[in-house]
């Protein structure tokens, strides 16, 4: 029963949603949106699970003085400060995102710059990954190096200043070989998703039931 | 304004109102031929008026700017009769079309716009089911997937180095099919880790995925006969902030220095930040994603990459039961059909264009356009 009931629920829900995709008539027409709302409600409650996991994990780390426990202290202080400021802003200003709210200040002055900093790191990582990827070790790597060079130069004004043909070749590479490969991968991915969904609906794929 | 008054505005002609096809009801479509007065600079657009009797009264239900000859009234009550008229509006003047109706909106039982999707879904499902049946009778060939074959070596390497294994689902949710596919890879990784007695760390972006990952790892450790090695504290929730998650995982990588990193799931801009940090600590990295935009980053930074459909094939590859292998072969046949269709369409279109240029016959080209358009409808 422990396996059969979830498999039956998966089968019925899967078949209903597939049918609903083709039948606009009520009550099937908006079934997908309704299920999505149910999922959002359930997912909202699972935040408590996440919260429990996060706090318990770091409290244990501090309690046993495991290596890096200082980071756990910083995390818990930041977490509870954000939570308290969020609730305070909600009660006092009706919304945590009110321009006068301390939570809004925390968001714009701390969270946003931290997110931007992480995103900015990408520029350095692109440089280091490109350095390794573009080494001309064999024919395929050399082709990659040449085409990447053309595309990069063709996308900036200096490329056109060097030779007016560079943007044209760059566009050709992006519109034909690149697009063909991308579409090939996408088609395979979509077909894979259909076959996988069929396996899930028919109960062949049961990994999620462990 | 003087010009408009002198010649008079001409109303939109051929007004038609009909129940919107292939919808869930509550909608009427109104179509008209553009007013000849649209050429005047003073002409602004069309007001759509609705009434419940032919004599009125009429109230405005919508407005469209000039150049457009269709409007959908999505505020109708199914089963009720409505009458419509379209009013051409110019600066300081307006002119109404004749009243059309009655029209009654209703819900349809089949969305004809999705017939193409239905046919292809049916065909692909048929191929999959036929090949599942065939796979039960004979052994079918699956090509090697190096990324999946490398799992054992990667886990072994971590064990030899005395370092943990890190596994990430990226930003995927449990409702994403790719996350389900990733769970079967995690199951294999966890089983190997348990056999070798290696620590497995799984930081999560989604609490639901975390719960599924905990159960998967727990079951794999139990099946491997090492339930004592399972540590729930190694499979934790980090945050649902994209770059917060990236920072958290990077921190774990730098502190724990894993010997192997698995990036299996749905990734966005954080993919390279994670993979390059993994590379910086000398970890062997096996990535897999269906996010086409992130694949180049993984290919540049990782040792092995599962590209798109290879991720979905993982469960069948790792558990080669007839029904799993059969579904993969069915997928291949569908792919072959699509490739044949693309080649056939390319030839058809080319011959159509050549015939149109050389002999002035557009029949083949028109048929080709209708064929291609049939695929583009679907929403």
Automatic annotation (TrEMBL), chain A:
The chain crosses the membrane at residues 7-25, 37-55, 67-93, 105-127, 139-163, 183-202. It comes from the Bacteria. Keywords: Membrane, Transmembrane, Transmembrane helix. This is Uncharacterized protein.
Automatic annotation (TrEMBL), chain B:
Residues 106-353 form the DUF6754 domain. Pfam families: DUF6754. The keyword Membrane applies. The keyword Transmembrane helix applies. The chain crosses the membrane at residues 82-103, 115-132, 336-355. It comes from the Bacteria. Keywords: Membrane, Transmembrane, Transmembrane helix. This is DUF6754 domain-containing protein. It comes from candidate division WOR-3 bacterium.
């Amino acid at each position: 029963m422990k396996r059969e009931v979830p498999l039956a629920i998966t089968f019925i829900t899967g078949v209903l949603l597939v049918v609903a995709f083709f039948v606009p008539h009520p009550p099937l027409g908006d079934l997908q949106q309704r299920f999505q709302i149910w999922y959002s409600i359930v997912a909202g409650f699972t935040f408590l699970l996440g919260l429990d996991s996060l706090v318990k994990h770091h409290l244990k780390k501090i309690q046993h003085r495991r290596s890096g426990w200082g980071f756990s202290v910083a995390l818990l202080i930041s977490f509870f400060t954000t939570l308290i400021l969020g609730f305070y802003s909600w009660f006092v200003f009706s919304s945590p995102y009110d321009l006068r709210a301390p939570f809004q200040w925390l968001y714009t002055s701390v969270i946003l710059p931290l997110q931007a900093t992480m995103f900015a790191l990408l520029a350095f990582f692109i440089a280091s990954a490109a350095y390794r990827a573009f080494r001309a070790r064999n024919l395929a790597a050399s082709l990659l190096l040449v085409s990447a060079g053309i595309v990069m130069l063709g996308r900036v004004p200096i490329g056109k200043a060097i030779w007016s043909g560079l943007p044209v070749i760059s566009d050709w590479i992006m519109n034909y070989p690149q697009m063909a490969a991308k579409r090939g991968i996408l088609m395979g991915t979509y077909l894979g998703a259909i076959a996988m969904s069929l396996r899930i609906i028919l109960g062949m794929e049961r990994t999620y039931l462990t | 304004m003087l010009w408009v008054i002198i010649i008079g505005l001409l109303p939109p002609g051929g007004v038609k109102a009909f129940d919107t096809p292939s919808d869930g009801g509550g909608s009427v479509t109104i179509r008209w031929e553009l007013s000849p007065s649209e050429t005047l600079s003073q002409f602004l657009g069309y007001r759509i008026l609705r009434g419940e009797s032919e004599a009125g009264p009429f109230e405005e239900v919508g407005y469209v700017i000039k150049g457009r000859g269709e409007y959908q009234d999505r505020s109708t009550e199914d089963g009720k009769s409505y009458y419509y008229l379209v009013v051409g509006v110019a600066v300081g003047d307006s002119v109404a079309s004749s009243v059309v109706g009655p029209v009654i909106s209703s819900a349809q039982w089949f969305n004809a716009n999705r017939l193409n999707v239905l046919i292809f879904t049916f065909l692909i499902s048929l191929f999959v089911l036929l090949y599942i049946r065939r796979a039960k009778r004979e052994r079918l060939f699956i090509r090697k997937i190096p990324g999946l074959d490398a799992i054992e070596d990667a886990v072994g390497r971590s064990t030899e180095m005395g370092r943990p294994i890190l596994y990430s689902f990226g930003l995927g949710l449990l409702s994403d099919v790719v996350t389900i596919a990733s769970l079967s890879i995690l199951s294999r990784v966890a089983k190997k880790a348990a056999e070798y007695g290696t620590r497995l760390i799984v930081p999560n972006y989604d609490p639901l995925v975390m719960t599924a990952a905990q159960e998967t790892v727990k079951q794999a450790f139990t099946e491997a006969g090492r339930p004592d090695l399972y540590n729930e504290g190694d499979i934790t929730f980090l945050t649902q902030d994209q770059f917060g998650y990236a920072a958290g995982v990077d921190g774990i990588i730098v502190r724990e220095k894993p010997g192997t990193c698995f990036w299996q799931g749905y990734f966005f801009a954080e993919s390279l930040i994670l993979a390059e940090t993994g590379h910086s600590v000398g970890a062997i990295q096996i990535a897999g994603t269906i996010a086409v935009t992130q694949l180049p980053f993984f290919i540049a930074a990782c040792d092995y990459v599962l590209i798109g459909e290879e991720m979905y094939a993982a469960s069948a590859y790792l558990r080669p039961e007839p029904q799993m292998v059969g579904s993969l072969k069915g997928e291949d046949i569908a792919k072959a059909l699509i490739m044949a269709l693309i080649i056939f369409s390319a030839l058809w279109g080319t011959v159509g264009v050549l015939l149109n240029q050389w002999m002035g016959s557009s029949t083949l080209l028109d048929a080709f356009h209708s064929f291609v358009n049939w695929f583009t409808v679907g929403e």
